[in-house]
Amino acid sequence: MNSLRFRRAISLSILAWRFLASTPMLASPQIWVAVRSEVAFDRERRAVAVRHVWEFDEFYSSTVTGLRAGESADPRRPQNWAAPADVLKALARREFFTSVRLGDRRPAFKPPQDVQIEIDPRNIVRLRFTLPFEAPVVLSRPLQLDVRDPDHGVAFGLEIANPVTMTGNHAGCSVEIVEPETFVASYGKQPPTSATIMCR
After folding, report:
1. Tens of pLDDT, residues 91-121
2. 8 A C-beta contact, residue 197 and residue 175
């Protein structure tokens, strides 16, 4: 294995290991993630998937890439990596940190699709993936989308601008960001991690 492939393998293994290391024993978040999500609808105005883009904090990104902010990357290194099986397994053990609720129902997801790990020009790591629903979801009542780590090892927060959007036939549907009421001593007020999608 050449040095480039070895470095890539080590970096992605770190990504998986840090997710697996998020346990209740951690007193404060070890990873900070800014979340942007998209709810996809089909022609019958049913929710069929949730697409995520997660942007990791600068320190964690430098751990994964070996590069500090502003440091020049090796131009030979691919800027778009396919996530390996161990990363997916790590996320699956945490149910992809994503839950949805429709009244008393909790619609289930299929295995993820379109998984990509990217490094932007600032050397920040982004993870993109799609979670298709096992069956299309009719929004007969508000659908709550929640992205969080109940063990607090990973601190998720929705992006400030347009954190949750919709695609497809979502006529008459709207998104409301749910502001949390809790405070966390280590980093102040918890950022929003939930959104409610309502269709008339």
Report:
1. 888 889 999 999 999 999 999 988 888 888 8
2. yes
Query: Model's pTM, two decimal places?
Result: 0.79
75 — alpha (psi -120 to 50), left (phi > 0) or beta? alpha
pLDDT in tens, 8-55: 444 455 555 555 554 444 445 678 899 999 999 999 999 999 999 999
How many whole angstroms separate alpha carbon 59 and alpha carbon 64? 9
CA distance 81 to 11: 11
Closest CA to 176 of 156, 155, 192, 157: 192
More confident residue, 181 or 91: 91
Distance CA 142, CA 72 (A): 46
Exposed e or buried b per residue across 62-97, where buried means at least 16 C-beta atoms within 10 angstroms of its C-beta: bbbbebeeeeeeeeeeeeebebbebbbebbeebebb
> Rounded to an integer, what distance in angstroms lies between the CA atom of residue 149 and that of residue 29?
9
**Tokens 């090796």, residue?**
74
Helix/strand/coil for 37: strand
Highest mean pLDDT among 1-10, 75-84, 91-100, 148-157: 91-100
